[in-house]
Design brief:
By secondary structure, the chain is an alpha/beta fold. Strands 1, 2, 3, 5, 6, 8, 9, 11, 13, 14, 15, 16 and 17 form a 13-stranded parallel beta sheet that branches. The protein contains two helices and 17 strands. It is elongated, with a radius of gyration of 22 Å.
């Protein structure tokens, strides 16, 4: 019997796969605050949430299908087992949204405030995040498939134990981001800030643009206990050796 191969294993690098685009409906109905509160096990289909305040609400098992969010406020929302399919988010506030065991499929997010978002133990498939503020966000134990981050602020984001196979980061600030125990075969970084990231030794199989390597090399050296000596230190060390020789 052939041995089972786990995702991301082997010597080859996982190829990049562009996310599939959302499938928007031909028309949308306008959602209202009175008729479309987040209730447990509720389903929302082909609705436009425009300038709608849903902040602070909580519900389990909510499903959104072919919905559009523009100028809406979902800050502080708490979801468990939620699903977003073929949805579009634009100029919407998702700050401190907390979702567990939730999914996004064929979803586009653009110019969002997502500071402190917690998307834990979930799944993102065919998702594009563009120009989003994702600082202090957490995606622990989440599986990513066909996902791209473009021009996002991901400072101190937490990807611990996430499966980032094939994910692409372009023009992103990942200063201080955490990747401990993440799976990163084919994860691509292009023109990103990678200073001070954690879990750098989990980056086996990642693909890094040459211009991003310099900053990462210092973090990697530190993780491996390697001291990088600069020219001034080297000269000072040589000078000490010469003085010592004269004293003898």
């Amino acid at each position: 019997m052939a041995a089972r191969t786990s995702r991301g294993s082997g010597s080859g690098v996982a190829p990049f796969r562009a996310p599939a685009k959302p499938r928007p409906p031909a028309s949308l109905d306008l959602a209202t605050a009175e008729d479309h509160r987040l209730e447990p096990e509720s389903t929302f289909q082909r609705l436009a949430f425009v300038d709608l305040d849903l902040s602070g609400q909580a519900a389990d098992g909510v499903e959104f299908m072919q919905c559009r969010f523009k100028g809406a406020d979902l800050s502080g929302v708490q979801l468990d087992g939620a699903a977003f399919t073929d949805c579009l988010f634009e100029s919407t506030n998702l700050a401190n949204l907390r979702a567990e065991r939730s999914s996004m499929i064929r979803t586009g997010l653009s110019t969002l405030r997502m500071t402190g978002v917690h998307w834990i133990n979930g799944a993102l498939r065919d998702v594009t995040m563009s120009e989003c503020r994702l600082d202090l966000s957490s995606f622990r134990f989440t599986n990513f498939t066909g996902v791209t981050f473009d021009g996002c602020n991901l400072t101190r984001a937490d990807f611990q134990n996430a499966d980032l196979t094939g994910v692409r980061f372009t023009d992103c600030d990942l200063t201080g981001a955490q990747f401990s125990q993440a799976t990163m075969n084919g994860t691509r970084f292009n023109n990103c800030l990678l200073a001070g990231i954690g879990g750098v030794t989990s980056m086996a199989g990642a693909v890094i643009a040459h211009q991003d390597l310099a900053a990462l090399s210092y973090t990697l050296a530190k993780a491996l206990g390697i001291h990088i000596e600069n020219a001034a230190e080297e000269q000072a060390g040589s000078g000490s050796a010469v003085v010592g020789a004269h004293l003898r």
